[in-house]
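During the no-cost extension, the postdoctoral fellow (Dr. R.K.) reprocessed legacy sequence entries with the updated structure-token encoder. One reprocessed record is reproduced below for audit purposes.
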Amino acid sequence: QVQLQESGGGSVQSGGSLRLSCAASGVTYRNYIMAWFRQAPGKEREGVALIKYDGTTKYADVVKGRFTIPQGNARDTMYLQMNSLKPEDTAMYFCAAYYGTLQPEFDPDDYHYWGQGTQVTVSS
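Re-encoded structure tokens follow.
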């Protein structure tokens, strides 16, 4: 049973930085994609960044240049470095995992496992 646990959320001022972590346990699959999604009140869940088992990363346009998934970490830990945060980045951030041979991107329905989420609040 795969379990995901996020941490690192908090409150920051506009222009600040946060680093989120996602710890995965029970992983036995080789091919995986891990992603960060976020959901603000009254809005749909949206994908912001993902990393594939081969190290390939992809970012949503709204965070490109500000958010990164650092490379070189253990396969059971994923981070999201968030810089130049804006009030519109305020949301619950979720870690998600897909295990298989397809190539999902930012459709939340494609992901098998989810963490409980960590809140990020950016004040102006």
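The CA atoms of residues 89 and 122 lie 7 Å apart. The mean pLDDT is 93. The remaining legacy entries will be reprocessed before the final report is submitted.
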